[in-house]
């Protein structure tokens, strides 16, 4: 096993994370990209956790929690996994959310994995994750195809000059907000002093407070290379439920209209009929809006699927054939010169 344990780098993208979730066997959950720290999280469905990607600086010691866990916090209440290999942090952050969400149907693979590691210590859990063939296979399905592989170990020093990025997760638990960083010793409780905690999304305010602190501590605080995603319930679940209720309400209103048609000569009957027609119109309008939202969500997921297929496809043979064909027709040097211009 190499130093990265044969785990590939993962792109921080909602389409990638949504497919990772689905391919792990979890249904009805998606990743939603957050474009601003002032985002209105109330517009999302139930939020299970937040994934935060940030630049990891050389010399930074993530093994020591920035804020020590509270004395009365029992570590076994949260399933925490130590990170053993470098490139597993994306899937590890995702699992930190999924495995600590009690109202999710995880599927057989993750259920079995959770049952296996729940009584292990964090380091042993990390070893179990590193050696989980099923989880690693889903993770590595997004491995980037390399055009050139450098077999010279002396050139590995160049990698030290590249920026490193790290994923961590934030979850609500036991009335508090916890950061789960596999490079730390355990779950870290975070809290915004200005957050009363009374809001349904109060834990998110705590998480955003801690994320802002982290961003401001990177370099001079002007580095904008970070990414934020919310792991949420698939919005189509609520939309579909509402559509079923609308259909039922429309049927009931139609029955009422048919009953009124027997005696529709008096004013009260006509007024009631007008009211029913108004309600039917409003429900039909709402139905069209919801169907449009479902269509938009389906198109977004379809675009995710197309983008992911392109990420996974090996374009190297096509590129090599193209170069060979250009060279055969003596057009390669011209193409290179045009590219330089």
Automatic annotation (TrEMBL):
Keywords: Coiled coil, Hydrolase, Protease, Thiol protease, Ubl conjugation pathway
Any GO CC annotation of this UniProt entry: cytoplasm
Entry annotated with the keyword Coiled coil: yes
GO BP annotation list: protein deubiquitination; ubiquitin-dependent protein catabolic process
Active site: 89, 166
Taxon lineage: Eukaryota, Fungi, Fungi incertae sedis, Zoopagomycota, Kickxellomycotina
Keyword Coiled coil: yes
PANTHER family in alphabetical order: UBIQUITIN CARBOXYL-TERMINAL HYDROLASE (PTHR10589), UBIQUITIN CARBOXYL-TERMINAL HYDROLASE ISOZYME L5 (PTHR10589:SF16)
Name under which the protein is recorded: Ubiquitin carboxyl-terminal hydrolase
Sites annotated Important for enzyme activity: 181
Domain UCH catalytic residues, every copy: 6-233
Source organism per UniProt: Smittium mucronatum
Site (Transition state stabilizer): 83
Sequence similarity: Belongs to the peptidase C12 family.
Transmembrane segments: none
Highest rank taxon of the organism: Eukaryota
């Amino acid at each position: 096993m190499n130093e990265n344990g044969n785990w590939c780098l993962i792109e921080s993208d909602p389409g990638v994370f949504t497919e990772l979730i689905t391919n792990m066997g979890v249904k009805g959950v998606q990743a939603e990209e957050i474009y601003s720290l002032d985002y209105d999280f109330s517009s999302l469905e139930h939020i299970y956790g937040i994934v935060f990607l940030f630049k990891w600086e050389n010399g930074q010691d993530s093994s020591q929690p920035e804020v020590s866990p509270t004395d009365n916090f029992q570590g076994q209440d949260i399933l925490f996994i130590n990170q053993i290999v470098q490139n597993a942090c994306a899937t590890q952050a995702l699992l930190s959310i999924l495995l600590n969400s009690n109202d999710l149907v995880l599927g057989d693979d993750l259920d079995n994995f959770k049952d296996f590691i729940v009584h292990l210590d964090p380091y042993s859990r990390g070893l179990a994750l590193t050696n989980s063939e099923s989880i690693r296979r889903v993770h590595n399905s997004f491995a980037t195809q390399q055009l050139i592989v450098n077999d010279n170990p002396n050139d590995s020093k160049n990698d030290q000059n590249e920026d490193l990025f790290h994923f961590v997760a934030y979850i609500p638990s036991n009335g508090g907000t916890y950061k789960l960083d596999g490079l730390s010793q355990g779950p870290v409780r975070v809290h915004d002093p200005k957050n009363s905690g009374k809001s349904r999304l109060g834990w998110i305010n705590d998480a955003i407070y801690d994320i802002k602190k982290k961003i401001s501590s990177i370099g001079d605080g002007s580095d904008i290379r970070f990414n934020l995603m919310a792991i949420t319930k698939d919005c189509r679940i609520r939309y579909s439920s509402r559509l079923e209720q609308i259909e039922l309400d429309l049927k009931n209103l139609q029955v009422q209209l048919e009953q009124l048609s027997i005696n529709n000569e008096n004013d009260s009957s006509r007024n009631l009929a007008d009211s029913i027609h108004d309600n039917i119109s409003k429900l039909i309008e709402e139905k069209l809006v919801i169907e449009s939202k479902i269509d938009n969500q389906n198109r977004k997921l379809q675009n995710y699927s197309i983008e992911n297929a392109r990420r996974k496809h090996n374009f190297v043979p096509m590129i090599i054939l193209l170069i060979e064909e250009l060279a055969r027709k003596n057009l390669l040097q011209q193409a290179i010169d045009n590219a330089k211009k």
